Task: inverse folding
């Protein structure tokens, strides 16, 4: 079945460091791919998404490229801030539609000043 | 303000005492869903609803019930809660039922503890 695997955390970085959070997926066809972020005490909110191969989603300095050949959707940011400390979830929705959204386990990021 | 609301935000109860967690959205979204979040497991879908009176099971429906009598509301019912249902619960809504590309909008979460 469809699945999402993301790197285990926590990830601890210093402010202004480069961030990569790896995400790979297993799915038939061409799923839509998402990164959601969960700040402490809050619900999830969409960070970015990509709906077809080679698309790049971007928002708030974060980027991720839909790589069909490697079935990956890694999240990157060139310079993290303390305010980026949160839990990041990679997710997919199958091409077949419906709303069987599948989430990864989440990666907690700590950014130190 | 467009939002998904859940109540209560925190609940401590005892085994077997029926409870309902309410979810409401003011965006006229057709699709709504319930998830539970557990450490190391991410979010797992409990139930979803594609429209009024249309609901279906997600990945972990056992021990839960839902209803969708109005478009804006999607309550989650635990008829006889057990300790393994201690978790963080999220309600979400999405504008369309045909687009797998659509973003989900999440409520703030309900932290449930069953003793």
Result:
């Amino acid at each position: 079945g469809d699945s999402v695997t993301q790197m285990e955390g926590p990830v601890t970085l210093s402010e202004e460091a480069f961030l990569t959070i790896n995400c790979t997926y297993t799915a038939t066809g061409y799923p839509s791919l998402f990164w959601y972020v969960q700040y402490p005490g809050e619900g999830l909110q969409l960070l970015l998404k990509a709906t077809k191969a080679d698309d790049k989603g971007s928002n708030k300095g974060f980027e991720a490229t839909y790589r069909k050949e490697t079935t990956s959707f890694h999240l990157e940011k060139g310079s993290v801030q303390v305010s980026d400390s949160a839990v990041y979830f990679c997710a997919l929705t199958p091409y077949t539609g419906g709303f069987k959204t599948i989430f990864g386990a989440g990666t907690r990021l700590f950014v130190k000043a | 303000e467009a939002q998904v609301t859940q109540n209560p935000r925190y609940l401590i109860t005892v085994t077997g005492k029926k409870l309902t967690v309410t979810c409401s959205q003011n965006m006229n979204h057709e699709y709504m869903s319930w998830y539970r979040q557990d450490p190391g497991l991410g979010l797992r879908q409990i139930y979803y609803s594609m429209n009024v009176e249309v609901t279906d099971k997600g990945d972990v429906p056992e021990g839960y019930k839902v209803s969708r009598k109005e478009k804006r509301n999607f309550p989650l019912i635990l008829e006889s809660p057990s300790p393994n249902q201690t978790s963080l619960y999220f309600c979400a809504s999405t504008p369309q039922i045909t687009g797998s590309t659509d973003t989900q909008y999440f409520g703030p979460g309900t932290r449930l503890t069953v003793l």
Notes: The two ends of chain A are 41 Å apart (CA to CA). The first strand of chain A starts at residue 3 and ends at 6. The CA atoms of residues 60 and 106 of chain A lie 19 Å apart.
